[in-house]
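Task card 7
Instruction: Convert sequence to structure tokens.
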Amino acid sequence: MTATQTLYSRPEALRRVPTHYCPGCTHGTAHRLIAEVIDALGIRERTVGIAPVGCAVLAYNYFNCDFLEAAHGRAPAFATGVKRVRPDLIVFTYQGDGDLASIGMGEIVHAANRGEKFTVIFINNAIYGMTGGQMAPTTLPGQITTTCPDGRDVRQVGYPIRMSELLATLRTPAYVARGSLHEPGRILEAKRFIEKAFRYQVEDRCFALVELLSTCPTNWAMPPDVACKWLADNMIPYYPLGELKLPEESVTS
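Output:
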């Protein structure tokens, strides 16, 4: 009789519940990576997640840890309060591009500049997902959305904002990285970035943000496999992958 070996199982930090995400959406992949990292670091019992308005508004249904709901764009303010009152907790925000890079722009920039020691998971799918596929701050030049049916015109609305590059210019020590969820190799790389970001918080070292390029097949009007290829061909050239800032490279004076 051949013995069986379990290679993969559901992380303890992830609940066994149905998902509300659209077929092919990579939010579920991001959730799994975060949950695996939480389990690997043994921090589930002291982890608090914060999700504001957006596709991940129901994230508290999926993670098996404490969770708070924030107003649109205000997750960094919530995280700042929780972490300052209870520095022993591991605090992370889970935010989309319409949330973090638009209404929450001021919140995230100042939290990073203050060096608040929490972790940010930033999902960039270049569009507003939950509210109907409108143009987001990260929508690519020429990309079609419900509010720019002829494509984003940079002469009228400017260029997409590279949030990771923007935050990496701050002098405050921080960890900033950008990964992608469109293929297995990149998913494993993204997990390494996420683990490093959480580990920096466990070590009480610095603010950390991991941007994850993600697909939105529904609002991109593409099958999931086509959406993954579109991400690779169009998003990665504008949003290059890798570690943009390490705390060792930051200055404190």
